[in-house]
Design brief:
By secondary structure, the protein is an alpha+beta fold. The chain has helices spanning 3-13, 25-41, 45-50, 73-86; strands at 52-59, 69-71, 91-100, 103-114, 117-130, 133-141. The protein has a single domain (22-141), classed as Roll (Nuclear Transport Factor 2, Chain: A), CATH 3.10.450.50. It has a six-stranded mixed β-sheet.
């Protein structure tokens, strides 16, 4: 039996549903960002808080030109609670996620109603994930 086939057989036979194979850093990062985005689009700050490191950093896209930096889990969660209250119809659609280890870049479209009309803007988030939690989310927009 070829060595590669033997190794795969041993791995398959030694795995079970109770003991899933460990995730690669890319898979773990993607799963964390997917969970973050799902909680974000539900406007649910409590699950979002569980996905943040204590020392997390968020850089907002406004005010121009450099945005605002918010540091620490409590401050970031409070920022999002306030933001969700002001933007109850807001939704982010991830167009693409590029993952490399513990870093991810997400291209998105932010949609909401503005002055009674559908409105959107495109942007990018640059994430850093540590131990399955978001350590940094740096946001950038077009226009």
């Amino acid at each position: 039996m070829p060595l590669a086939l033997l190794i795969l057989s041993v791995l398959f036979l030694n795995s079970s549903p109770e003991t899933p194979m460990p995730q690669s850093p890319d898979q773990s990062t993607r799963a964390t960002i997917d969970a973050f985005n799902a909680a974000f689009n539900r406007h649910d700050a409590d699950p979002l808080a569980q996905l943040l490191t204590d020392d997390t950093i968020f850089e907002d896209t406004s005010p121009a030109p450099d945005g605002r930096r918010v540091e620490g889990k409590a401050a970031v969660v409070e920022f999002w609670r306030t933001w969700f209250a002001r933007n109850s119809d807001a939704h982010f659609d991830a167009e693409e996620m590029i993952v490399s280890g513990h870093r991810a870049t997400v291209l998105w479209v932010y949609r909401k109603m503005r002055n009674g009309q559908p409105w959107h803007i495109r942007g990018v988030d640059v994430f850093t994930v540590r131990d399955g939690k978001v350590a940094a989310k740096l946001a950038y927009v077009k226009g």
